[in-house]
Amino acid sequence: MRVLFVGGGSPATIFGIVPLASAVRNAGHEVFMAGNEAMVPYITGAGLPALSVADHEIKHYMAREWDDRFDTENHQDMMGFIGSWFARLGADGFASLRKVVETWRPDLLVGGTMSYAAALLSAELKVPYVVQAWGLDEWTGTDAAAERVLAPELRELGLDRLPEPDLRIGICPPSIASPDSRDDLLMRWMPGNLQGRLEPWMYSRAERPRVCLTAGSRADHERGFKFLKTLSERIAPLDVDIVIPAPEELAAELRAAIPGVRTGWIPLNVVMPTCDLVVHHAGGATTMTALTSCVPQLVIPETPVFMPPVQRLADFGAGLAIPEAEATDSAVAEACRAILSDGDFTVRARALAAEIAELPSPAALLPRLERLADASLVPADA
To answer: Which fold has domain 200-358?
Structure first.
């Protein structure tokens, strides 16, 4: 069968669906993955054939949809903003993919959360459509905003709303899942991030407790430098080994500002098991990597809308969550000290890792995907 995977425009949205795409491809099926032009190196770096379906980066779509009247503290406003710019990306992706399918028609579409191009193409081709979650995040309200932006495309397809997927695949361990979860099937999360050259310290335990600081794979000077530099200053008095996985351009700035710091594009799944704590911004891939590595977390969400899922993690006892407005020097230092000195946080993190390990692997989901695709299979030259 032919399966088209559709990412969402940032590295984390690619990494999240790489394991399932790789499992499908390794089973002998034909797989393409689509993303905007900036994501092509991440897709090919994961060993998958890449389709560039939009020329613009995320900032372009975000700038188009941002309204100064938005209240970043207001959940409805932020979900509407997020859904709107994802919809703009989806509209561009849909336009490009329409040309692709003239010669390469998929039998199944798999999109990450809010990969709206997959939903639109599914409606046009009348082929099954699967949504796979990227992280623990809850995106209630995004679809309604996306439908307003995508109204012209939906009208052309004879629809007044986005089509429902034939299957929803979730990755959140049951103990911290939202009570409103709509997942039909749970899958074991596995790392799909871009790899690199390893050095012994990356996979070896340090003599002191090791703390990982990260602002995600999309971090840059604007949205990562101050956050990471400030964090390192706040926890330096704790006498810990600090490591900062970051894109190389940002890492160069951090090395200049923090002499001797270990930073760069360090594979998160390699270094995480050597850590005693990870402090981060509520990124989905970071959260899941820590969970599978049995590492407790201190999460400082960028905006309040990302607080609910990490608060459930904290309520379970696998870490702590502090709203950004309350993340003072003393609050962050005290939270780190509490986690590093109390082994119960690690015990609870291990319990969640055990839950994840019991879920079906991406390869185990293949029969379900194959059955979905059966109804739309056509000769390859049709």
So the answer is: Rossmann fold (3.40.50)
CB-based contact 117:97 (threshold 8 Å): yes
**For residues 120 and 65, what is the distance between their CA atoms, to the nearest angstrom?**
20
244, 213 contact by CB (below 8 A): yes
Question: Tokens for 53?
Answer: 């379906």
β-bridge partners, 170 = 186
pLDDT of residue 64: 80
How would you list the strands of the sheet with 210-214, edge to edge?
262-264, 241-245, 210-214, 277-280, 297-299, 319-321
CA–CA separation, 172 and 195 (whole Å):
24
Sign of CA dihedral 144, 146, 151, 156: negative
CATH topology agreement for domains 2-189+359-374 and 200-358: yes
Three-state secondary-structure class, residue 345: helix
For residue 189, give every residue at least 6 positions away whose Cβ sits within 8 Å of its Cβ, in sequence order, or none: 19, 171, 288, 291, 292, 356, 359
For 2-189+359-374, the fitting CATH number among 3.10.180.10, 3.30.420.40, 3.60.15.10, 3.40.50.2000 is 3.40.50.2000
* Domain boundaries, given as residue ranges, for the chain: 2-189+359-374, 200-358
Ramachandran region, residue 224 (left: φ > 0; alpha: ψ -120 to 50; beta: rest): alpha
pLDDT tens for residues 314-349? 999 999 999 988 999 899 999 999 999 999 999 999
